[in-house]
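Need a sequence for this fold. Nothing fancy.
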């Protein structure tokens, strides 16, 4: 089947198999931040934005993205690097495997929620699994990053 998908700002038209997962489509197009983890929609490693909203690409057919815009971490490099520095400073980047999906959800949350509470942050990021940390370092990094963004906007 023919699809036309805008991936990180670039229009891609190609023939795909009907059962191709969006995760595999993204990886075939050099988006290595989109990772295969649990394959049960529980870890968040495969998070991408579908028309600006985070979804799990491991349970989404690429055909569903026909005519839509998909954004991966590669398409958000500047913003991702900014938060990544905060995450590293707070010790939340131990193995780094979960970071792309985590950062994709965090950046989506920042666009959607103004000055979120800890409960709202935890709820928004609940689908992200990190086996290295207890998320304390992640929360510190998020708060420092949000404060930095407020100061930058002033």
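Here you go.
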């Amino acid at each position: 089947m023919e699809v036309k998908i805008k991936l990180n700002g670039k229009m891609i038209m190609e023939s795909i198999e009907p059962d191709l997962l969006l995760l595999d489509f993204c990886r075939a197009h050099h988006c290595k931040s989109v990772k295969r983890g649990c394959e049960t929609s529980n870890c968040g490693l495969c998070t991408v934005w579908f028309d600006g909203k985070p979804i799990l690409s491991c349970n989404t057919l690429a055909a569903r993205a026909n005519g839509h815009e998909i954004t991966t971490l590669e398409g958000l490099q500047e913003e991702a690097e900014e938060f990544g520095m905060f995450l590293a400073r707070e010790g939340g980047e131990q193995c780094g495997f979960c970071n792309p999906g985590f950062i994709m959800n965090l950046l989506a949350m920042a666009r959607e929620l103004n000055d979120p509470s800890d409960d709202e942050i935890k709820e928004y990021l609940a689908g992200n699994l990190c086996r290295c940390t207890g998320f304390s370092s992640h929360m510190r990094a998020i708060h420092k990053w949000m404060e930095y963004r407020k100061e930058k906007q002033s």
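For context: The two ends are 49 Å apart (CA to CA).
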